[in-house]
Specification:
Blueprint lengths: L3 H8 L2 E4 L8 E3 L9 E3 L13 H6 L4 E5 L5 H11 L4 E5 L2 H15 L5 E5 L4 H12 L5 E3 L9 H6 L7 E5 L7 H9 L3 E4 L7 H4 L2 H8 L10 E6 L3 H4 L7 E6 L6 E4 L3 E7 L2 E7 L4 H16 L4 H10 L8 E4 L5 E4 L6 H13 L10
Helix pairs in contact: 1-4, 5-11, 5-12
């Protein structure tokens, strides 16, 4: 984490006011989330300008904020902020969004020895990241992407939280060409994971081939001898042969020795070269593939066999992602309404189709 002095250095900013030795604990872009330990980043978006809320966050006790040099009310905002709080930390920058990126990159480089696992793909990113984190957390202090902080705004905020963890699990997404490359440069992954090349955002990228080209940019700033873990059942990922200085680890459904699905899934697979029974308190073949990702990552980081099994068993999915809700009359409702991409809906329907019918019930 960075002090105000380091933030000025990282962003090539101009120090205006405040204690340069202070270290913000949180970075926020939403004025409603501000508290007395947070630093506010006023982002200029399509519909609003965060600079409008600077005085609000000062009143709420924020320790400081960035301000764009081009902000037309800059001098007035600075003057009124200091009147409200003489100790408020203010850094003037050319562009607040770019300053956030530079600050996150600076902090990642400051803690470059902490391994970062980056997860991307058309679907399954969040579930896979959470399963990896569940396994690693049995043995390590882990920083994991919160909510949907997987963009050029969210990922730098997460990178600014790197301090003394044993590992970081970051989800990275994209909705435009070049975004994955910038995120790879930001977090410099030690391990990359690509879940699947699907059709999400195909209206932007034009084809699955272009989506593949964008997703593979996760490797563009990975360190030498890093590891890329991919789903070989995907036609694009399965065709990967080599990437310079990157070790490619492929997994597929062929790795599963046996599988049984009722109210949950149990399957047998090799862990450190030995057959092990794994129980996953979820349904759906896609969750088994997510679990294999977690196993592969855990093996690279030396997580014990028992903790791998424990971590997968402890995993709990998010609300509305194949969420099982037990109703009256022996009926189970599966809520999978979070994501409506074609690939996610296909997977959900296949999962429901494979569930065993309950006795004395006309529903699945």
């Amino acid at each position: 984490m960075l002090s105000i002095k380091e933030l000025v250095c990282a962003t090539n900013g101009r120090y205006i006011n405040g204690n340069q030795d202070l270290i913000p604990k949180e970075y926020v872009i939403d004025s409603r989330e501000v508290d007395d330990s947070s630093f506010f980043i006023p982002i200029i978006g399509k519909n609003t300008d965060g600079h409008k809320y600077i005085l609000d966050v000062v009143n709420k006790g924020s320790i400081g904020f960035f301000i764009n040099s081009s902000c037309k009310d800059k001098d007035e905002i600075i003057r009124n902020s200091i009147i409200e709080n003489n100790n408020i930390c203010i850094i003037e920058v050319d562009d607040t969004k770019e300053a956030l990126y530079k600050a996150g990159e600076y902090n990642r480089n400051k803690h470059i020895d902490i391994p970062v696992i980056a997860v991307t793909g058309s679907v399954g990113k969040t579930s896979t990241r959470e399963m990896i984190a569940s396994v690693l957390s049995t043995q390590k202090n882990v920083l994991v992407t919160k909510a949907n902080y997987n963009s050029l705004i969210g990922t730098p905020i997460m990178a600014l939280q790197i301090k003394d963890q044993d590992a970081c699990v970051f989800e990275i997404g994209t909705d435009s060409f070049g975004e994955i490359e910038k995120l790879s440069n930001l977090i410099k992954p030690d391990i990359g994971v690509i879940t699947i090349i699907g059709t999400a955002h195909i209206g932007i990228f034009g084809s699955r081939e272009n989506i593949f080209k964008e997703k593979i940019q996760i490797t563009s700033h990975m360190k030498n001898n890093s590891t890329l873990i991919v789903n070989a059942d995907d036609d694009y990922l399965g065709s990967l042969e080599s990437i310079k200085n990157i070790n490619i680890v492929k997994f597929s459904k062929k790795d599963i020795i046996s599988i049984n699905q009722n109210d949950n899934i149990s399957f047998k697979i090799l862990v450190y070269g030995k057959e092990e029974n794994i129980t996953l308190n979820q349904i759906g073949m896609h969750n088994v593939k997510n679990a294999i990702c977690a196993i592969k990552v855990a093996e690279k980081l030396g997580i014990s066999k028992d903790n791998i099994i424990k971590g997968i068993g402890n995993y709990k999915n998010f609300s509305r992602r194949m969420e099982k809700i037990v109703l009256k009359n022996n009926i189970t409702l599966i809520d999978d309404t979070y994501n409506a991409s074609i690939d996610s809906m296909k997977s959900g329907l296949q999962t429901i189709n494979n569930l065993p019918r309950k006795k004395n019930c006309n529903s699945w």
